[in-house]
Amino acid sequence: MLVCPVRLVGCFRELGQVSPEDEELPSIVEARGKLPVEHRSLVATYLRSASVYAAASGSATDCFTGERHIALNVQQTDGTWLWPASFAHYVAHHGVAVPEELLQHMRALEWRCPVLSREELLALCDKMSEFARALRKKQKRK
User: What range does the domain containing 59 cover?
Assistant: First the structure.
């Protein structure tokens, strides 16, 4: 069984971030307002302070308000989890739910996101590339 080196979070089926037809992704509409107000600032700050894993041109638009340029089109990571930069906006402004495992992870780190070194980011890139190759190979066999 293939296991992704990081856990993906903050991708929602309505946003088309991974695959628009991926019904396994959670609904951002259903997740809205589920994060308690007292956690929103802590969680959003943690998410925003993470290392950038990957970047592309463009920016995100808020799917609820239509506000443009809410975040750059980047993926961020703490080395354990990976999320789009727009996730912090949705947490802060719409109280979008965060998995309990991620909340526990943040609490254990006292709400301080580790900053990854260049070497750590490159090692993660290597692991993700290996995972992607193995996944493509597995899909070709089907």
Answer: 7-15+26-141
Residue 137 placed within a domain: yes
Q: How far apart are CA 26 and CA 34, in angstroms?
A: 13
Per-residue pLDDT of the chain (142 residues; tens, 9 = 90+): 778 899 999 999 888 766 545 668 899 999 999 999 999 999 999 999 999 999 999 999 999 999 999 999 999 999 999 999 999 999 999 999 999 999 999 999 999 999 999 999 999 999 999 998 998 888 887 6
Token pair of 17 as six digits: 């971030």
Q: What is the DSSP string of 65-91?
A: T--S-SEEEEEEE-SSEEEETHHHHHH
Distance CA 6, CA 128 (A): 8
Query: Which letter, b or e, does each residue of 115-133 get, where b requires 16 or more Cβ atoms within 10 Å of its Cβ?
Result: ebeeeebeebeeebeeeee
Amino acid at 9: V
For the chain, how many structural domains are there in total? 1
pTM recorded for the entire structure: 0.90
